[in-house]
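The freezer alarm interrupted the setup, so I double-checked each line after restarting. Inputs confirmed:
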Amino acid sequence: MADGLKVVVIGGGSSYTPELIEGFIRFHHELPVRELWLVDIEAGLHKLEIVGNLAKRMVERSGLPIEIHLTTDRRLAIKDADYVSTQMRVGMLEARGRDESIPLKYGVIGQETTGPGGMMKALRTIPVLLDICRDIEELAPNAWLLNFTNPAGIVTEAIHRHSNVRSVGLCNSPIGLRKWLTNAYEVESERIYTEFVGLNHLHWVTRIDIDGEPKLPQLLGDTEGFSAKNVPSKGWDPAFLRSLGALPSYYLKYFYMTDEMLKEQQESFAREGNRAAVVKRVEEELFKLYSDPDLSEKPKQLEQRGGAFYSEAAVNLMRSLHNGTNDIQTLNVANNGIFDFLPKEASIEVNCVVTKTGPLPLPLTNVPTHVKGLIHAVKTYEQLTIEAAVTGDRGIALQAMVHHPLVPNVDIAVKLLGEMLEANRDYLPQFFPQG
Amino acid sequence: MADGLKVVVIGGGSSYTPELIEGFIRFHHELPVRELWLVDIEAGLHKLEIVGNLAKRMVERSGLPIEIHLTTDRRLAIKDADYVSTQMRVGMLEARGRDESIPLKYGVIGQETTGPGGMMKALRTIPVLLDICRDIEELAPNAWLLNFTNPAGIVTEAIHRHSNVRSVGLCNSPIGLRKWLTNAYEVESERIYTEFVGLNHLHWVTRIDIDGEPKLPQLLGDTEGFSAKNVPSKGWDPAFLRSLGALPSYYLKYFYMTDEMLKEQQESFAREGNRAAVVKRVEEELFKLYSDPDLSEKPKQLEQRGGAFYSEAAVNLMRSLHNGTNDIQTLNVANNGIFDFLPKEASIEVNCVVTKTGPLPLPLTNVPTHVKGLIHAVKTYEQLTIEAAVTGDRGIALQAMVHHPLVPNVDIAVKLLGEMLEANRDYLPQFFPQG
Amino acid sequence: MADGLKVVVIGGGSSYTPELIEGFIRFHHELPVRELWLVDIEAGLHKLEIVGNLAKRMVERSGLPIEIHLTTDRRLAIKDADYVSTQMRVGMLEARGRDESIPLKYGVIGQETTGPGGMMKALRTIPVLLDICRDIEELAPNAWLLNFTNPAGIVTEAIHRHSNVRSVGLCNSPIGLRKWLTNAYEVESERIYTEFVGLNHLHWVTRIDIDGEPKLPQLLGDTEGFSAKNVPSKGWDPAFLRSLGALPSYYLKYFYMTDEMLKEQQESFAREGNRAAVVKRVEEELFKLYSDPDLSEKPKQLEQRGGAFYSEAAVNLMRSLHNGTNDIQTLNVANNGIFDFLPKEASIEVNCVVTKTGPLPLPLTNVPTHVKGLIHAVKTYEQLTIEAAVTGDRGIALQAMVHHPLVPNVDIAVKLLGEMLEANRDYLPQFFPQG
Amino acid sequence: MADGLKVVVIGGGSSYTPELIEGFIRFHHELPVRELWLVDIEAGLHKLEIVGNLAKRMVERSGLPIEIHLTTDRRLAIKDADYVSTQMRVGMLEARGRDESIPLKYGVIGQETTGPGGMMKALRTIPVLLDICRDIEELAPNAWLLNFTNPAGIVTEAIHRHSNVRSVGLCNSPIGLRKWLTNAYEVESERIYTEFVGLNHLHWVTRIDIDGEPKLPQLLGDTEGFSAKNVPSKGWDPAFLRSLGALPSYYLKYFYMTDEMLKEQQESFAREGNRAAVVKRVEEELFKLYSDPDLSEKPKQLEQRGGAFYSEAAVNLMRSLHNGTNDIQTLNVANNGIFDFLPKEASIEVNCVVTKTGPLPLPLTNVPTHVKGLIHAVKTYEQLTIEAAVTGDRGIALQAMVHHPLVPNVDIAVKLLGEMLEANRDYLPQFFPQG
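Predicted 3D structure, all chains:
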């Protein structure tokens, strides 16, 4: 660390990587990255090289002393790392496509992080990520693991429960809301205090203060302007929002406007296939751009890809951990009593002070009674999913799916689980042992 | 109390009352009732007289020194009472009919205790019951209130939260399971230990021991024999039951087999109207029987009415409170830490030791993770319902309905709430103040 | 178990054993003991034979089919046992003498269960008892361990934390209070409800109801009659008792009347040596009596020995576990949320319902604020003592002693710990490893 | 607030006030004080004028637009205030003298914040402070109350429990430790992270990181350099500190080194009277200095007075509340689950992030088991003291004193309480009602 940091990106061949590179360049004076290792699996080598070469051109142009390493040797990369970030997709976009399509056949929301789709993604991902943790425990025990891999909340809790790695889960959704507020109110972000209450992709904003003045009540009366790109943005019922007394995240539409969202998904699927197919086309275009040997900066088109603030979230967190800035970020951490109705180990998404020795969650000043049951119901599903992922127990997997609020009944759960496990057979060795 | 107890039955004109009388007669040596006051409202006076006269004939035949009083003067009845029991139906069977019918129009379960129907029943009942509590606080501060009025769990919690009356909620469902086990295994009931986990009409049995030997695993493999009269008894999915590791109560079919139950309700409604209409016909027949001046015992037909063990539950509880028998009964009491994820005041339905100074809940030895979220989700709805009943706040009522697991989305909740409140206008002065 | 139970008494050569035998004889119809194994160590063989032969004569006289086995082979005895009871004294009365004498030199209470003396007893005993647990886990995994060995609360918690054996801690003190009440009020014990709040040898009685009528307030005004034989009985300050609102156990005099108790101990020590010496003389006389081949019943003199109700406590508990009587007994069990300020694993002494599958602690209806701090302070010492006993860590032992409320300061703690550990060197291999 | 803040200092005639003035001048760019109201009682008017005139000269010299108001009209001062700070001494130094002297007669620590002395101070102060809160609730409901009045923890909890005023308790002790570390390690204070665990005047430092590197273990090996001016600084036992694993605050010497501290107090008392007498002489000299019309800055001698960092603590907190800086300060706030064994309302002294809408306590990363009991024991005393102060109930006051760890037994507690209440009769109307 004497002469700079070693940072590892697992899933380095992702189309998001140029975002990260841009961040590392911009904040190099505060986060002195010396080596950046982009790691991917054999099947992703081609993309890794394209995006890796773009990264090298970007660094070269910056004139900064950052070394870019491209490798499929994960252990070599992890050795003595200071920060490891993950942005993986086990099963790639094909698996995502199945996560999105199969539930629709049963009249169930098909989404890659919420509902049965997210559950499958968790079952595929957790064992792989715990393998990575084993490597970090051995080769870089002091490293911080920044987990962007979705479903980020579940995956982060799996790491807390089954590994000693120091780990934080990240999502760009809170940062997105703050950006939106910054623009809408034309203030610097330090003047805004937003309180996030809940879990990853299941949070409510229960306080928005600007210069200490509460702005949420007014905002709940005018919801027109609020939307986001990668999630449908149908309007909320105003009477509902007012009595809710909180701003629900985009993902809560799956729970509160289930029928509308399902209909929209079904229409969209009929029109252009699942979202995975759309993303695939976007990615192909991005990689075409990245391949241009004259390109040495992040192309504008990447921003439309949806993960706008991932880079900012990651670089912010590393910077604050590195410098002990004690600033407030919204992160996925262990509950430890913040919600008195959830287990201590439950991952939650709340405001944290980022100290040098890790994020400390801030107590919540307003947890509406209304939302406690839903938080607990989803957390129950999440815990069961983690247990199923680790044990390969079909009974537990069934209980997870039955008790997910978006799965309408046991009968559908049984059938849906059967088909989805089968469809993911190649990525679920814990459920389909060899021999 | 020196020469016997004063017992008051609010809603004494109910068709169930002969059950109670029979119990008081049978256990008079242990529960020396001196005066039994049957109270009803003006509109129920005719039925009160029919059932009251039957009661008098039953007592006369027994030769016991029990005085039967019939009155519409509630305060006179309550004065210095030892036990007050309630079995009311605010709005009578007509209101129940609406509770059952209106949700069906929106594709939502229509049931008098679970879901939007139960919510309306709670909104109608809580203010009336709290009025009764005011009378008890003033006129019989040491009395025990035994609440059979449904939704018993919600109503009991409302009393705990908004009154100082010593109160317990009762349901015949746990006693029914124990009866079933007693028959099925041919043992005396003392040799059976069953652990109930959950809320009223939302419980799971997580332990059944006979002579200390665990019998539940075997029972979960053979669910054929298990059913009940007043709730549809479609079979459970065996794989689901096995991994659940607990026996769900009949009412959980509304949550776990929602589509099947809805379909059954819709078919039944098309065939013979709502359940309220069926019950009405049965009641009319019962009262015809009760009017027979030669009848001086509980007629057999009453048992088919559905509330088989209400009498037993009520007399058992009074008997144990009176004698301090320290036996174990399954009751609705304040949580006080039994479930570490629910508020202290939450009413829960669990095993209690009935001491002379009240029931003490026993710690639970097995609370499956699977069911915590659902318990919390329903308790959230219950708390909001109580708050709405007491305040008449439509926003809170909307949140209650939105967050009920059986209500599919905000849009339906808004419409359903609007129609149901309107349909109950006469019984909801808190929502429709005069002026 | 088909033809009766196998019961093992570790420390069977104790002078208390005839009490137990008498109990097994009296309640044989409810607790069908087939084999009773009295186990002791080589050094206690002589006493074991004396008391064992008396036991045989007592059984013979009763005509019951109970086999008495005397052995030093613990594993042979434990094999397939149904109940194991322990009443050990590691280091025998000589060690007790040191536990009582050394603290007095430093102006600190010298007592065999409370304070530094009790700590030393715990350090000597816990490893031995955990060895016994290893045997039970292996040879009789379904057996219940009834632990009478003092300090019973600490030792029971050590077993809960470091073994899987099903275990309960017992003390005769609560049964003694109930006996006293039974006599004083001339009622049967079923008509009395007493609520015990606290830890072993550190409890308060916060409710005494007779026939449901509260009797405690009156009793707190008249404390003359209340005393016990084996603990000094100086009177409590009446104003203190009234505002305490609870009856403190005898052992609380060490905390509330420290100076008086210390002075009394010092005077008694000057007069007749430590209590161990007194007990030794009593025991010698008892064993002389026991040796009489014509004696075939429990001699009256045993009752003056002090452990009056041990037998009753043990037989009661075995009987209720065996028959699942669901009666209420005051036992040492894991906290599990009964005290919301103590860890779940903390052993506490409270009322329990004894079900066939073990005791379930009843919730407390009245925990005075005043006593929470003292309970927590003593529990802190207990936890540290267990940790020190298991690890042999002197630093933890020092923290335990420093934080005991009866140890006045760090300086004394350092010196006292040093001298007491050294004096117990032969029985503390964890602190004085060989080599 | 548009053109600056209104700040009120209750007890403005204190000798500490020039410290505050200096702070307001130095940080005026960040904390734009427009009006500063120094309030005192009639009996303190002379001192108020002396210190107030010095304040005016200091402001004049600074050239800043701060108006100084001197008044005995508390309500006029509080009207529309932004910040109210209190630094009162009900009964003045004479009462402190008694707090310090009387316990010594009984062989008990005599100290103005810890033990029976602190208890009396709390009984005198709480009713007065709650009166001030009534004024703030009425006249300046949005004001923040910064409470420096000792015993700050108890007083702050009394305000939380019995008033709606937004209030924080402050102490200069944590800031003192950080200053000491800053000097000792020659680093800027932002590079230091210290975790404070406990209550006001009863805290342990369980983490000291400099640049993220743990420094505490090393510090616990070398305790020579650590001392403070206004509390005796006898050395800690090194073996004790090492196994404690935490740095105890100065005030913990009263608990851990009771005999030594008592002896020192007794010797000091014999030599120069109680500490109150010493302080009185220092104050007289200070006021002589303050009276010099040529003095227009804080005199050096004030620093020796002992309250070195009070000003810094107060100005820091106002500044952070005003600007929402989200920095970390060690403050007295409501527990709200930070310690899972204390009530939610308990005041605790821990690190907080100071947001614009108030301080949010940070979760603790290391709470040693050893100290939980002592924290709970002292908090028990504190709660009882608050209850006694509000009700004037002697029985509760007796329980408070009996259960204070520094009071050796009930007998002394009874006598000490009697004498101390009597000695404070003029300031305890709740215990000595007129008539």
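Quick read of the result. The first strand of chain C starts at residue 5 and ends at 10.
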